Amino acid sequence: MKKMNEKELEQLIHTTLRSLPNRRAPGTLEARVLAALEHRSTVAWYHRSWSYWPAAVRVAFLTLASGAATLGLVAMYFVRQGVELSRVGHELAAQFPQVAEWYAAGTWFVSFANRFVTNLPALWLYGGLATVAALYATFFGVGAAAYRAFNRAS
Amino acid sequence: MQTPNEGLTAPADFTTFMRNYQDMVYSTAVRLIGNETQAEDISQEVFLKAYEHFDKLGASPSAGGWLKTVATNLSINHIQRYKKRWRFFSDIVQTDDEGGEKEVEFAAPENFFTKVDAGERREWVERALEKLPDHQRIPLVLFHFEDMPYDEIARKTGVSLSKVKTDILRGREALAKILAKSGTANEPFQTQDRP
Questions:
Q1: Nearest chain B Cα distance for residue A57, angstroms
Q2: What is the ipTM of this complex?
C-alpha cells in the first residue's frame, strides 16, 4: 500500500473522472421532450404563466390591475378624509344595483357564519378540531411508517 | 420561422440540437443526482427550457455551456427540494466529516483498473460515483466535472466553505477506496437504488 497526499489524490481522481465519456441518454428522452412540447402547445394561454399570455391580454390585465390599485388608493384617501361610508354605499347601490345584491349576500353569509360559530357548543368545536388533528396525525404517521417499511426496504 | 412560444410542433433543427446535446445534459444530471429516472426528468426539463430560448440558442456557440449550467442548477435545486421534502421520512443520516486524516492508503495509486478494458473501467467509475452519499458526490462532481471553485460550490449548495472542502476530500478518499477495492477484487458493483 502506498500513501498519497491530498494533492496526489486530487490529481488521480481528477484524471480518472475526466477520462469518462458522457453517459448515453436514454432512448426515451427525445420522445418525452417532443411529447411534452406537443402537449404544451395545446394548453390554453390562460393556463400558462404570464410570459405566455398574448400581448393584448397582458396590457389589458396591467391596465385593470393599475385601475383597481388606483381605485383602492383613492378610496383609502376618502376614508381618511372622513367620508361617510354608509352614504357612499347608498350612492354605489343606486348606481350599481347588482353590486348591492352581492354585498347584501356577502353580509348575510358573514353574519350567519358568525352566529353559527358563536352558538356552537365549545365541546363540539374543540372536539371537532381535535378529531381533525388526530386524523391528520394518524394519516401522517401511517404514511411515514409505510414509506420506511416499503420504500427504504426495496 | 416558427418561434418556440408559438410552435405547435418542435422544428426539425431542434430535434437535431437535442440529439447533439442530450448525452452531455443527461450525464451532468445523472452524475449530480445519482438516479437515472430523476436525471431523465431533469434532462427533459432542461430541453423544455432550451426550446423556449431556441431562437437565440439554436445557432449560439455557447449553447452547450448554457445547457450545462441549466442542467447543473436544476439538478441542485431538485436535490435540495427532494432532500427537504423527504428528510422526515427517510431518516437521512449525516456523519460528522470535520477534521481527519491527511493521507489515504489504497492500492494501485498510479491508475485504477490496469487489468480491465476502457468500457468496463467507465462502468466501474460511474457506479463508484453513484455509491457516494449525496453530500460527497455533489461537490465532487461540481469540482471535477464542472470545474467549479470551492466557494461557488459552497454558495450553490448552501453549505460552508470548510464543509465543502472536507466533503470533497472525503469523497475522493471514498471513491479511491471503492475503485481500488473494485479494481483488485474485480467484482461487480451492487448498484444502490436511491429513493
A1: 16
A2: 0.72
